[in-house]
């Protein structure tokens, strides 16, 4: 087992891990890493978060659940790898490339002209009043804006700024459509726009700048 070491975030590229600087030189993709049931594990963990977000357990049940979650965490602690080896973020066959920390989305179309994805904010993405938290909406725009700019520049990009307009409430547990595209490409600068719709209703839009990384840039 390799322990997770956040002090190695800028280790140089090598043959077994061909990333450069702080990000991989290329977007790393896989459909097998973590095994055939990795997506199911992610979905159960999301369900755990949904249920935990709204649970109000009596004391004796809290005690039992602490022991159960502790046992689960001990199992997860046994299988830690570093960020370059984890399936999370690489599994293009799974929602949000298998990255549990992102609102789950499925890309239905993607290329240099932009990205279209179905995004569903889960019950645990609650901000208030049954609507999604604005921070989670920004996370979805950041990732799908990053994907649109990466597909345009054919390399890894990093967010320089990201401004979200919250135009109307974003519902939970509802398939929504997110679109992101590069409006203007100026050298390394990809100016990205995006929208989030619930049917015909605009929930949010984004204006962001992503910068293509130079080789070896941390
Ligand atoms: C598919 C996977 C998708 C994943 C997407 C996830 C993306 C992320 O969340 S990334 C994490 C969040 N972002 C960060 O941590 C970024 C931190 N900042 C940085 O690393 C650097 O400031 C970085 C890379 C943005 C720019 O630095 P650097 O590469 O040295 O570029 P630099 O020379 O300063 O600027 C390049 C150009 O961009 C412009 N620029 C840079 N930052 C900004 C900004 N915030 N606002 C406006 N313009 C900017 C500069 O003015 C310059 O313009 P010009 O070429 O016309 O003179």
UniProtKB/TrEMBL annotation:
Its main location: membrane. One of its GO terms (biological process) is fatty acid metabolic process. Keywords: Apoptosis, Cell membrane, Cell projection, Cytoplasm, Fatty acid metabolism, Hydrolase, Lipid metabolism, Membrane, Transit peptide. CDD domains: PaaI_thioesterase. It holds the Pfam family 4HBT. It is an enzyme of class 3 (hydrolase). It catalyses: (9Z)-octadecenoyl-CoA + H2O = (9Z)-octadecenoate + CoA + H(+); decanoyl-CoA + H2O = decanoate + CoA + H(+); tetradecanoyl-CoA + H2O = tetradecanoate + CoA + H(+); (5Z,8Z,11Z,14Z)-eicosatetraenoyl-CoA + H2O = (5Z,8Z,11Z,14Z)-eicosatetraenoate + CoA + H(+). SUPFAM superfamilies: Thioesterase/thiol ester dehydrase-isomerase. Residues 1-38 are annotated as: Disordered. One of its GO terms (cellular component) is membrane. The keyword Transcription regulation does not apply. Its EC number is 3.1.2.2. InterPro entries: HotDog_dom_sf, THEM4/THEM5_acyl-CoA_thioest, Thioestr_dom. Belongs to the THEM4/THEM5 thioesterase family. This is Acyl-coenzyme A thioesterase THEM4. It comes from Gordonia desulfuricans.
């Amino acid at each position: 087992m390799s322990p997770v070491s956040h002090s190695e975030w800028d280790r140089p590229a090598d043959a077994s891990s061909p990333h450069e600087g702080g990000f991989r030189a290329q977007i790393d993709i896989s459909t097998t890493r973590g095994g055939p049931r990795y997506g199911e594990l992610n979905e159960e963990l999301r369900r755990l978060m949904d249920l935990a977000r709204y649970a109000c357990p009596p004391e004796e049940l809290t005690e039992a659940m602490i022991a159960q979650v502790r046992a689960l965490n001990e199992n997860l602690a046994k299988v830690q790898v570093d960020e370059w080896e984890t399936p999370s973020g690489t599994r293009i066959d799974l929602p949000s490339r298998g990255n549990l920390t992102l609102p789950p989305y499925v890309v239905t179309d993607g290329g240099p002209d932009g990205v279209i994805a179905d995004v569903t904010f889960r019950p645990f993405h609650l901000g208030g009043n049954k609507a999604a938290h604005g921070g989670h909406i920004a996370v979805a725009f950041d990732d799908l804006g990053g994907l649109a700019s990466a597909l345009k520049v054919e390399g890894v990009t990093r967010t320089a700024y990201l401004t979200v307009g919250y135009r109307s409430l974003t519902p939970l547990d509802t398939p929504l459509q997110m679109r992101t595209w590069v409006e203007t490409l100026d050298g390394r600068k990809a100016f990205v726009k995006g929208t989030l719709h619930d049917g015909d209703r605009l929930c949010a839009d984004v204006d962001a700048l992503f910068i293509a990384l130079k080789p070896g840039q941390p």
